[in-house]
Known about the structure:
Mean pLDDT: 83
Structural class: mainly alpha
Distance between the termini: 25 Å
Strand content: under 5%
Amino acid sequence: MDKPVRTISSNPLTTVKRGLLIAAGTVAVGLGILGIVLPGMPSTVFFLIAVACYTRSSDRLYNWLVSRPWMRLPLQQMEHYRRTGAIPLHVKLIAMGAAWSSFALMAFVPTQAPWFVKWIVLALAVACTVFMLSRKTTRG
């Protein structure tokens, strides 16, 4: 399989902006890797953030990231969404289930979390649901 090749856009970045994008992309990759092993923590969103950061800042890091085997599925999903604007039903159900499960755990299991954290988790669950329900659905 050929490695994907991408070149940075013609608008050059300052060294500081490039460094910040590389740093943000690297943090996002780290969080994405944590999301693979920690239940309830997303991984795909962090990998997509890293792709966006590396797209603007580093061809080498972009090509390294998109050639990883564990990136194949998130990139396919992103491309499908970009082409169709639709999200598969099972992805919607998993996303909303994870969002509302996180809220239920935070709200109903005794924790040391402050009340405003519970409200933030509730707001994220509602935002996830609104977003998922506002997109077309595919059966794939």
